[in-house]
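Render this sequence as a predicted structure.
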Amino acid sequence: MRNLKWIVAAGLLFIFVQPAWAQESCQDSVFAVVEGNSITVYHTGALYNCCPTRFDYDVHLVDEYILIVENEILWNPCYCICCMDLTLEMDHVPPGEYTLEFHWYDYETEVWLVEIFPVVVPGGVPDPGEPIVVYSSHSGCYDEMSDVEEQEPTTTWGTIKALYR
């Protein structure tokens, strides 16, 4: 009888967790907004593990290219994925016309993807030094995948996350 309780509990846990892993896909969108010598890059609808410790960004300025690689840092991953919005702000970008190349790992295809687009930092007094990341954030998981564009991001995955930690 004791083993039956564990089997039922494991089955219920699987029922609650499986939808979190098998949800429909997010719609990745990457774009940038320039203000003065700052560039803010937005990665909306990003599909990542629902328990990220943090996100790191490798940022390199080489001639007319700005290369950014987004890395998810997981210390205690959960068995679930979700949509979230990520933001990266770079400061001290010298004036000029750039090609921004943004790389991220895609959970659905299990390959690295890249988005490439032009960015213009207006003229003026050059800000010395390489662009540095001064701020990055993520929204946490959306409540449900079906209406991602209509929902505000939230962090209500706490109960499911606690089961896996």
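Summary. The helical segments are 2-21, 158-164. DSSP finds two helices and eight strands in the chain.
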